[in-house]
Design a protein that fits this description.
Elements (H helix, E strand, L loop, with lengths): L1 H30 L4 H10 L6 H45 L28 H17 L11 H12 L5 H29 L2
Helix pairs in contact: 2-5, 3-4, 3-6, 4-5, 4-6
Length: 200
């Protein structure tokens, strides 16, 4: 029994080591596509400030679709979603403590790091929160705006910018994406439950 458990542990650790090795190799390859002529574009994409007009547009769409009362309540739900997502990601990062690519001594000399944050890497807050907000908004507005699914362009660009800038690994982005989708769906269901109970 002990031998089987030890063997299983070795297999899991071996798989994990290989996964991390592959993840780093993929980051190096994807990051290498970067060129100086595109740096300013991706630095703008990765900056939350430049997406403020999109957020304002989404708030307008919520109010236009649901009215002021429901719309403002849904905006509060969106704010709570962002806060929850951010805090959950911080908890995960501080628990896992994976170094960012720009701080990883194995690869930080061979990648193009356009930013140099000090925090941990896993999972990506940009990826998690952007996919959470996008999922929440698409579920709310999908019956009222035919092209609302085009909103998915934002989180994909936003998340990839972190790889381009050399501050996140692909696994950070991918698992952040799935975590964000789950969070967005949960908050969507909570908002439905809230309105049903309050009979708005």
């Amino acid at each position: 029994m002990f031998s089987f458990s030890l063997q299983t542990t070795k297999l899991v650790l071996s798989f994990w080591d290989e996964l991390i090795k592959t993840d780093k190799g993929l980051l190096v390859k994807l990051n290498a596509f970067g060129t100086e002529s595109w740096d300013s574009f991706w630095l703008a994409v990765t900056n939350q400030f430049y997406w403020v007009p999109l957020f304002l547009l989404l708030f307008v769409l919520l109010i236009r679709t649901f009215g002021w009362k429901k719309g403002l309540i849904l905006i509060v739900f969106a704010a709570l979603l962002v806060t929850f997502s951010d805090q959950l990601v911080n908890l995960i990062k501080n628990s896992v403590q994976r170094l960012r690519p720009n701080n990883d001594p194995e690869i930080n000399e061979i990648i193009r790091a356009l930013k140099h944050p000090r925090g941990y890497s896993f999972v990506s807050a940009h990826s998690t929160t952007s996919f959470a907000v996008t999922t929440f908004m698409i579920l709310l507005l999908r019956y009222n705006f035919r092209y609302i699914k085009l909103l998915l362009i934002w989180p994909f660009l936003f998340a990839y910018s972190r790889i381009y800038c050399g501050v996140h690994f692909p696994i950070d982005i991918i698992l952040g994406m799935f975590l964000g989708i789950i969070i967005g769906f949960v908050f969507y269901r909570l908002s439905l439950t809230f309105f049903v109970k309050r009979s708005f």
